[in-house]
């Protein structure tokens, strides 16, 4: 790690910390405020990958993972109205989803870096976001995985309801996952703008240095 990587590490840590706090606050019926901050972790990873390479991007990912683990541990110790703010299933799902999805993002980006400027960040973020959402919500709320934490009652997440209130009947957690995934996809497109601007400025700075 070098001083050049420090802004990326700080940005990733801030996003992970903010998302762990904001996930406690609902936004509508299907989302939390954390859904709008967390996807920018992929932007940070992709920026580091484009500017400094895959190794630097992985260092930033591991830094974010450590911050996430610390946040989850603290959350398991804070008792809210319905029990711990973070259950062990959520902690395991969050950590595994983050690490798997981010490292997959790094690998895909690195493979596509020689193509059009937008292809690597868009493809890596879309795939990473999909894997992240699928892993987290399945591990945290699927009835098939109750053995992970038998004492944690997540039966509420299995309530059969129309998908996002309008579609076919599915478990509630599926609607939560689809809503979260939709936000990730939308922000993946939005993030292309700052990605292009920051990369252009950074690479121009390297040329003139």
Quick structural summary:
This protein is mainly alpha-helical and 209 residues long. The protein contains seven helices and six strands, in the order αββααββααββαα. 34% of the residues are buried.
What can you tell me about this protein's structure?
The protein is mainly alpha-helical and 209 residues long. Helices cover 66% and strands 7% of the residues. It is built from seven helices and six strands. It has helices at 6-22, 40-52, 54-77, 88-112, 119-141, 172-190, 192-208, and strands at residues 26-27, 31-32, 79-80, 83-84, 160-162, 169-171. The strands form three sheets. Strands 1-2 form a two-stranded antiparallel sheet. It has a two-stranded antiparallel sheet with strand order 3-4. The protein has a two-stranded antiparallel sheet with strand order 5-6. Strand 3 (79-80) and strand 4 (83-84) form a beta hairpin. Helix 2 packs across helix 5 (119-141). It is globular. The model has no long low-confidence stretch (mean pLDDT 92).
Low-confidence stretches: none
Shape by Cα distribution: globular
State mean pLDDT (0 to 100 scale): 92
The number of helical elements comes to 7
Helix content: 55-70%
Major sheet: 2 strands, antiparallel
User: What amount of the residues lies in strands?
Assistant: 5-15%
The SS-based structural class is mainly alpha
Distance between the amino and carboxyl termini: 20 Å
Strand order of the largest sheet: 1-2
Helix-strand pattern? HEEHHEEHHEEHH
Radius of gyration: 18 Å
Q: Please give the number of β-strands.
A: 6
């Amino acid at each position: 790690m070098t001083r050049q990587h420090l802004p990326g590490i700080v940005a990733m840590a801030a996003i992970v910390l903010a998302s762990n706090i904001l996930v406690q606050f609902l936004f509508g019926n299907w989302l939390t405020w954390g859904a709008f901050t967390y996807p920018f972790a992929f932007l940070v990873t992709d920026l580091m990958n484009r500017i400094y390479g895959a190794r630097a991007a992985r260092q930033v990912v591991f830094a974010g993972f450590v911050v996430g683990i610390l946040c989850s541990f603290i959350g398991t110790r804070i008792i809210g109205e319905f029990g711990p703010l973070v259950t062990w299933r959520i902690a395991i799902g969050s950590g595994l989803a983050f690490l798997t999805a981010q490292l997959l993002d790094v690998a895909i980006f690195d493979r596509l870096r020689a193509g059009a400027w937008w292809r690597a960040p868009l493809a890596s973020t879309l795939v990473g976001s999909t894997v992240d959402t699928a892993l987290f919500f399945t591990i945290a709320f699927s009835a098939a995985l109750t053995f992970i934490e038998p004492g944690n009652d997540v039966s509420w997440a299995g309530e059969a309801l129309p998908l996002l209130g309008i579609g076919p009947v599915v478990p509630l957690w599926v609607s939560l996952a689809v809503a979260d995934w939709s936000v990730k996809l939308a922000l993946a497109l939005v993030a292309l703008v700052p990605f292009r601007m920051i990369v252009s400025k950074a690479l121009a700075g390297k040329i003139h240095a």
